[in-house]
Amino acid sequence: MSSPRQGTGDVPPVPRPAMATVEELQTRIAELDPLIKAVCTPNPAARADAARLDAERGDGRVRGPLHGVPVLVKDNVDTADLPTTAGSLALADQPPPPADAPLVRRLREAGCVILGKSNLSEWANFRGSSSSSGWSAYGGLTRNPYALNRSAGGSSSGSGAAVAAGFADLAIGTETNGSIVCPAALNGVVGLKPTVGLVPQQGIVPISHSQDTAGPMTRTVRQTAALLTVLTGGGTDYAEYCLGDDLHDIRIGVPRGPLWGYSAGLDQVTEQALELLSQCGAVLVDRLSLPTPGGDEDQLTVLAHELKVDLAAYLATRKEGAPRTLADVIAFNQAHADEELRWFGQELFERAEATDGLDSPLYVAARLAGLKAGREGIDNLLREHQLDALVMPAYSPAWSIDLVNGDHVLGSSSSHAALAGYPLLSVPSGTVAGLPVGITLSGTARSDATLIRLAHAFETARIKAHGPFPTPEFTQWV
């Protein structure tokens, strides 16, 4: 039941007509997706789109390296021909949005085939504090293809699980704090949260305009680079930064506290990753520390205030009949509690509804505190030690699914970059008891290309040392 992983880190030429590729993937999804529920809305027009792109190729018109390549899009990103639900029944019966999100328009213009929409943690995992990543009332529960009783992470659960399962090499995720890099790490794929603002945010169901961004989730770093080139409008060819495994001109910081020590197995694999980076020639500056990334209360204050304002602005773009405010969504959930509130509540929504706007002194103070903790923490460390990037363990190995009590995350490395709006890239580093784990690479604003270079070098070195990443077997973990 496993599917082969590419071992070179390259985006190959389309090996067969797009139609044949789409048909093959649709067959695989039909066979295996009932086990993991990664694809919530297949695109019925995918074959016709593939046939049209094949005809263009036959006429000598090739739009770029992703011409005819299938991609899955997270179900909080607007598609004019498919529903966009954010996993909620409140939007499930509404017509599709009136227009594609700008990033989807760029995908189509680049010749990508939209294969369908991928499931997510409902409302991008910001509804109730005891939520289970990967669950939505619309799409059900996405499971980890490496261990069906373990979490696929959130909130881009379906995107990560789908790439790992071989349903598509490319998928779009979104992140506010960990929602790309977490499922990337848990599912053994590459995930990049770009610098906030590098990819257009319009047409994405929001949580926070100061932290939200869409980004690539792929099998290889070079595929992430190619997809980022499209998502950002093509001004930079990020694939040009995939330069092999020579890092002799690079200095990488290793912040130990407070980002290590919560998983012995993860620490061990990360130490091996550090050795590979050193063998590539990188200078490792070890035993550093990042400050604690602000209080949880400040972070929640920012997200709650921005959600109320930003969600109302988004809902205003949807057609008449859809909810118009956060209060409307809360009321819908209360009226459909047996389905929507079966496993966890909506206290985060209710907290957000009680906020009083972005001029609130409470919001302004919390936002400034978060920026200070994130940006100064990263930038000061980079400047003081003349570093190009930081490397850390990504996330604890996938935890057991527990719909009653919610997630059991032991630790992560996403908060500093989230608060700062800076890029973060997760790349597979190995396994712990058969469960994928990764490292994250972090840098300052607009250092996305540098992170891609470092991740590609590490990926290349890891494959040379250990071979292709293991494939999922779609079984229970014991």
Helix content: 25-40%
CATH class of the largest domain: Alpha Beta
Largest sheet properties: 11 strands, mixed
Percent strand equals: 15-25%
Determine the mean pLDDT: 95
Order of helices and strands: HEHEHHEEEEEHEHEEHEHEHHHHHEHEEH
- DSSP summary, beta strand count: 15
CATH homologous group name of the largest domain: Amidase signature (AS) domain
**Which structural class do you get from the secondary structure elements?**
alpha/beta
**Overall geometry:** globular
Helical stretch tally: 15
Question: What's the CATH topology name of the largest domain?
Answer: Amidase signature (AS) enzymes
First-to-last CA distance: 18 Å
CATH architecture of the largest domain: Alpha-Beta Complex
Extract low-pLDDT stretches: 1-9
What is the number of independent domains?
Answer: 2
Rg is 21 Å
**Lateral strand order in the biggest sheet:** 1-3-2-8-10-9-14-15-13-11-12
Q: How would you summarize what this structure contains?
A:
InterPro entries: Amidase_dom, AS_sf. The protein is of the alpha/beta class.
